[in-house]
Every structure is written in structure tokens, then in C-alpha cells.
Amino acid sequence: MVLEKRWLVVIQMLQEGSLCAQHCLNNLLQGEYFSPVELSSIAHQLDEEERMRMAEGGVTSEDYRTFLQQPSGNMDDSGFFSIQVISNALKVWGLELILFNSPEYQRLRIDPINERSFICNYKEHWFTVRKLGKQWFNLNSLLTGPELISDTYLALFLAQLQQEGYSIFVVKGDLPDCEADQLLQMIRVQQMQRPKLIGEELAQLKEQRVQKTDLERVLEANDGSGMLDEDEEDLQRALALSRQEIDMEDEEADLRRAIQLSMQGTSRNISQDIPQTSGTHLTSEELRKRREAYFEKQQQQQQQDPPGPLTHPCEKPTTSSEALSSELGDAMSEEDMLQAAVTMSLETVRNNFKTEGKK
């Protein structure tokens, strides 16, 4: 059988206020045998017994007046009850408490496994460790459920409590029968997950919700930044394409201007761009004739290897240079035209240099 967090067979009173002594006793006896009223009655009885003993020294004595002014040492308004109250409550069931930490008990060298139950106290908090059937359970009312303790771990568990400052009491006597003890005599249970402290699970849930909220915020922030990054990337791509298109347009414009300049024989000549030391240079007419001869040579080569059908430009009135450009466009591509114009320009420049060198 698997021991679940809220296993109903083992009775465990959960902490309410500071009534840990009441929970400790009822968890030990496995039933709701004591109420706060009954424990308060025992505490008042103990207070009265102590008052009577103090009065034996005289009701007018300083010790007696001091005793009356002090609060009760057996209970308080928070619900705390002393070891004397717990001990007197257990006497009703024929049970006795022995201090486990005492040197007298330690000299007996009794193995804790051979005991039946323990009551532990630290800073006004009480809880029970009890054997039910053949297994040990920590019935601390601050836990969300009974905690299974193995036989090999019991001694270490008690030693650890002692190190932390706990007072441990061995419960001597026969405990009343209970359903959990009878059932666990026949079966053993397993605990898949140890119980948590009361409030710890709620705190973890709150922490998980906070972490989830923070994670959602981070994811939302990342998604937002991711969208911004994508927008920036799209903008960068658009700018790059725009720059590329502008560059292509500039190249095309430069190409058109170069062809136009190379075809214009009347507006200016290349010799204007270089220093002239004599008046002998190629005229525009000579440059035009050389170009026509070069283009005729190119046309002859094209006729030997005729190209595919060409798209003819629309007819319109043209000048002599425009007519030459149109004829050139019929037989050559713009790239060929540019190459031809550059070649002719270079030839003109070289001839000018040669002429000047001879002088």
C-alpha cells in the first residue's frame, strides 16, 4: 500500500494556532481524546497545586506574592501547554514519559526501534513519533501528512533532533488500540513523496505562479524584441535592395551617358580633355568616319554569324548621330556599343599622342 499525503487510516491532527500539545497527544493516541478545554483544566489544577505548595511557606511571604504575580507556567493564552500538562494527561491512560536524552536512560542502551513512541519538544512545539504496525511515522502537526521513517533511519532521525536542541521523551506503557496499528500489522506501506511543511506547498505554488508570470513576461519581451528584430531586418533588407536598385540605375545612366558622349561628334572631341601642344588633331568628321568604319566591320562580323530577331525602335526624326546610334542598336547590344565607343576614344587619344611625339 502506498502512503498518500492525506491517508485516512493514520490520524494526524494538523496544526491549529499553538495547540501543538493537543495535536501531539491526539496523534499519539490516534484519536480526538483531548480538547483545549480539558488540557486547560489540567493546567489550572497544576497551577492550584503549585499555589498551595507555595502557600505552605506563608501567604505573606515574598516568594508567595511573587508567585501570584507571575503568569502560569503550565499554559498561556496562545494555547501552549507544558510537559507537566502532557504528562498528567497521559497518566489517565496509564502512560509515563521518560527523558530519552537523560544519562540514566542512555545507559540502558535501548535500541529506539524496540520502543513504541516518542514525544519531541523544541521551543514550545510538540510532536509525536510513533510506531504503527511494523513501521515508524513522524506525526508532526506542522507537516501536511504522516512521514514514513525507516528503521535504519530512526536512530539517526532522533540523533539529529537532539543536535538541533530537541527534548525527546520516551512514552512507556500500552497505547490504546487503533485501526491504523491493526491494519499496518498486516501490510507495509511505501511513501513515494515526503510531505512538506504546512504553508511550504502553498509558498511553492505561489513561487511557481510568480516564476510563471516572470517567464511569461520574459517570453513576451523576447517576442516583442524578436518582432522588432524582424522589422529591423526587413528594413535593412529593403534599404539594401533600394541601394542596389539605385546603383543599377546609376550604372545604366552612366552607360547611357557614355554611349551618348561617344556618339556626339559635333559637340566636343576627346582632345579637349587633354593638353594640346599643336593644332594637329583628328577632326570630328575624321572621328565619325573611323567610327563608321569600325561599326561596318562589326556589322560584317554579325552578318557572318547573324543574331536572332531584333526589336526595332519606333520610327521618328533623328539627327545624324541619333541615326548612327539607331543603326548601332540594331546590330549591337548596349555593352558592345559602349566597348566600341571606348575603343575608338582610346585610338583617338593614342593617335594624338603619337602626333605630338613626332613633333
UniProtKB/TrEMBL annotation:
Keyword Membrane set for record: no
InterPro entries reported for this sequence: Ataxin-3, Josephin, UIM_dom
TM segment ranges: none
Active site annotation, chain numbering: C20, C20 (nucleophile), H125 (proton acceptor), H125, N140
Region named Disordered: 294-335
PROSITE patterns: JOSEPHIN (PS50957), UIM (PS50330)
GO BP terms: actin cytoskeleton organization; cellular response to amino acid starvation; cellular response to heat; cellular response to misfolded protein; cytoplasmic translation; exploration behavior; intermediate filament cytoskeleton organization; microtubule cytoskeleton organization
All residue ranges annotated as the Josephin domain in the record: 7-186
Keyword terms of this UniProt record: Hydrolase, Nucleus, Protease, Repeat, Thiol protease, Transcription, Transcription regulation, Ubl conjugation pathway
GO cellular component: cytosol; endoplasmic reticulum membrane; lysosomal membrane; mitochondrial matrix; mitochondrial membrane; nuclear inclusion body; nucleolus; nucleoplasm
Locations listed in the record: Nucleus
UniProt keyword annotation of Transcription present: yes
Origin: domain of life: Eukaryota
GO molecular function: ATPase binding; cysteine-type deubiquitinase activity; K48-linked deubiquitinase activity; K63-linked deubiquitinase activity; ubiquitin protein ligase binding
Annotated EC: 3.4.19.12
Catalytic activity: Thiol-dependent hydrolysis of ester, thioester, amide, peptide and isopeptide bonds formed by the C-terminal Gly of ubiquitin (a 76-residue protein attached to proteins as an intracellular targeting signal)
Protein name (Swiss-Prot/TrEMBL): ubiquitinyl hydrolase 1
